[in-house]
Every structure is written in C-alpha cells, then in structure tokens.
Amino acid sequence: MKFHQIKALVAVHQTGSLSEASQALHVTQPALSRSIKELEGELGLSLMQRSHKGMTLTDEGRRLIRHAQSSMESLRRLQLEAENIKDMQVGEVTVGVTSLTAVLKGLGESITAFQIRNPRVCIRLIELRPYQIIQQIRDGTLDFAITSQQHTQRLNLDWESLSRMPGLVVCRKTHPLRAARSLRHLLQASWVSLDAIHDHSSQFYQMFEDNHIQPPARITECSSVLLALHLLHHSDAFMTLSEAGLDNMLTQGLSNELVQVRVEESIPEYPIYLVCTDRHSLTTSARDLYYEVRASLSTSEPLRT
Question: Which residues form the HTH lysR-type domain (predicted)?
C-alpha cells in the first residue's frame, strides 16, 4: 500500500469526481483511477462506485475512509514537524474550544504570549460542541482542545484534568417561575440547551439523570451562548450555564437581566479538560502551546469583569 493510493482515495471522496480530484492532485485521470484500483486490489475490497452523484464510497469504503483521512493528517503533521526541525517554530496549530472554555480567564493571554514568542506559527482556534471536538480530535483535524465534557475512558484519548466549574440554572428576572425550588416544578416549562439534545454525556442531560428526573419535553437546542441568552431574555425559558458564562464580560449586558434559580437538586459541575490523541505525539509548536495553556488554566478562574 502506497501513500499516493490513499491520497487518491481521499481526494476522490472529497471532490466526488475523478476529474476534479485529478486537477486537485495535478495528475491525470487514468493515473488516479489506476491508483485507486491498485489500492482496491491490495485490500481485496471495492472502495468506490459510480452513482448519479458522481464517484461515491461503497459500504467498505465508508468504513475505511476515516483511517485514510487520519493517515493524511498524520503525514501533514510529519511534514510540519520536519519544517520545525529545519527552521524551529514554524507551522500551524489547530485548537478546539467550547462556548464555556472560550471564556476561561488566562486562555487568551497564554495564546497571545505564545504568538509573541512564535510569530511564524499560525494558530487556528475553532469553537465547537464537546461531541464535535471529540470527533475532530479523533480524525486529526484538531491538535488538541480545551473541552468541558465528561471524561470517558472508552474514547481512548489523552485527557488531562484542569479544573471544575459550578453550574447554574438561570432565567430572566421577571420569569413567573423564578422562585421555583425544584427541577420537577420546571418540567413543563421551555428550556434552552447549549448541548446537543441527544448527547447523554452533556451537562444538561446529566443534570436530570443524576437527579432521577425525566428531561423536559420542550427543549430548544442552541450552540451560541449569546443567542441562548437572547432567547432567555425574551421568553419564559430556563437554561443551565456555568458561572463563567453568566459573568463573562462579553455577555454582561444580557446576563444582568438573568437570575439564578436556586433549585434543591444538585447541578453538575462543568469539568475542564485538555484533550488530544497523545500529548507526546504533538508537533513541537502544538506541544509548546499545549503546555502554555495548561500552565495558565491549571490555576484559572472564570473570566469576570
């Protein structure tokens, strides 16, 4: 199995046609087709098929494509690391954050300090939901991430615990149920969830499961903190939020209109983790930024005004 064969498979999958893939790779269509056929022959599997949508993966191809993409990403990192060795501290680092971890005090300062010392390193910061972060760590899109989800051993990733942050139930100050003292009194109300509704590892889902309460029926899923706070401001909805999210100076104008609902049930904390495939396999630039962020956030507090 040769790398140009894997590269051909990934390119055809991404473009959906032999002609576009051949242009992207700067090879002829017959050469590209031959590479895929050679790969199919070595594996003993049919990987691509023609359809009305162009070239698509077979069932076998769909099962293997993630591994092919991971191989491509590993080679990209190898090339970056080789450049680092030849000319120290060049390349790029891609870091994932959640809406909660993006407002942690010290994160921005640590990234800025790294940039000043390493002006030739390109840093990409991407805000994602926790489950999306795990997907992109596993397929190699992210070098590492600062996430706010429960640590799950079975994912076989490299997790490092940094801190835990209190969670709150909030609503607008004039909400008719703002004085409720139990989640059970709020099950018929509307809720806004920053997490994916069907993500059972999420803080929102765990809040009800840990207290042996069925989740409410009316839930609006919203990945944007700003939009979620707008929804609360203009409706009779509830949501869970970290203290960092409530006190974040970027949302201060809206959070001033919210009030904590002091329910008797326990509200799960938000765990803060650094996560990657293997911190010892990071490129030099990614590893240096990883430890810079770790040093800053290990003693961090929520970003406050």
Answer: 1-58
Indicate whether 23 pLDDT > 90.
Answer: no
Report pLDDT for 155. 67
Which pTM value belongs to this model? 0.65
State the residue for tokens 């390119």.
11
Determine the residue type at 191. Answer: W
Q: Which of 78, 15, 6 is nearest to 43 (CA)?
A: 6
Q: What is the pLDDT of residue 97?
A: 95
Q: Average pLDDT for residues 174-196, to the nearest whole number?
A: 93
The CATH topology of domain 166-267 is D-Maltodextrin-Binding Protein; domain 2 (3.40.190)
Token representation of residue 94: 């891609």
pLDDT digits (tens, 9 = 90+) for 216-229: 999 999 988 888 88
Evaluate the CA torsion angle 122, 127, 132, 133 in order and state its sign. positive
Q: What CATH number belongs to 88-162+269-297?
A: 3.40.190.10
Dig out the tokens for 278 from the structure.
């293997």
Distance of CA 52 to CAs 17, 18, 75, 96, Å?
A: 11, 14, 33, 36
Single-letter amino acid, residue 235: S
Question: How do the domains of the chain map onto residue ranges?
Answer: 1-71, 88-162+269-297, 166-267
Distance between CA 248 and CA 232 in Å, rounded?
Answer: 16
- Give yes or no for a contact between 243 and 302, defined as CB atoms under 8 angstroms apart: yes
CB 160 within 8 A of CB 273: yes
Angstrom distance (rounded) from CA 217 to CA 215? 7
Report yes or no: 187 and 216 within 8 Å, Cβ to Cβ. Answer: yes
- Nearest to residue 40, comparing CAs of 14, 20, 54, 58? 58
CATH code, 1-71: 1.10.10.10
Judge whether 88-162+269-297 and 166-267 match in fold: yes
